Give the backbone structure.
Amino acid sequence: MKAFDVHAHLYDKKFTDIDNVIKNAKKVLNGVLVAGEHPESNRQVLELAKKYPKFCYASLGFHPTRVPDFSDKEIEAELKFVESNSNKIIAISETGLDYMWLKHELPKERYEKEKVRQINYFEKHILLAKKLNIPLVIHSRWSMKDVLEVLRKNKAKNVILHAFEGTVDEAVQAIKLGYKISIGNTIKYSEAKQNVVKAIELKHVVLETDSPVLAPVKGERNEPANVKLIIKEIAKLKNVTEDNVIQETNKNIEELFKI
Ligand SMILES: [Zn+2]
């Protein structure tokens, strides 16, 4: 039985051996959702979806950490590009909020302004996903409270909270709104994430690697085949079989995506 990786960046330059990475991924997965971050990577995502049909699925968007590097005009144009390729994509991603990045990577005086811009474009992604009637895969760092608030305010539907960073309480709030919690390889060393998985039912969970980052061994390159390690950890925590984990999370994928 094969699983689904709901979040990866397979165009990353670390994937010089992409054919091999896909070959290994196919042994454990029936698909990978590849997320774009900015104009160049969005086009690379479309290329990958073309090169590996019915395995690499495309999702396009503008990553919150990329927002400060681009003008409003450029981001608006990219959102138009995303919309004009709606027949080639199955989700909107990557989008969301990242206050950690704003704090560490930008001069202090730009923080407030860029935070407002992140929120503005996050809202535009939500509206676009609603218009196209496809799911949203959301990034959040140090911003879960605002992420949930913006989603709620804009009545977002079909939401996946990728690399979920929230508390058990925030996971429960998200579930009440009908959202899915995406769990990656960090579950191996994050007690907070283990507690979230223990507290919620598998019908709210999907799996992701976020390749090439968030590897099971810190600092190494991650790849989609490593989903099998997440399945193993979840099975242990929930005291169910690995096939149960795959079955339950696949049901959530079928519910969200028409693939
Ligand atoms: Zn990502």
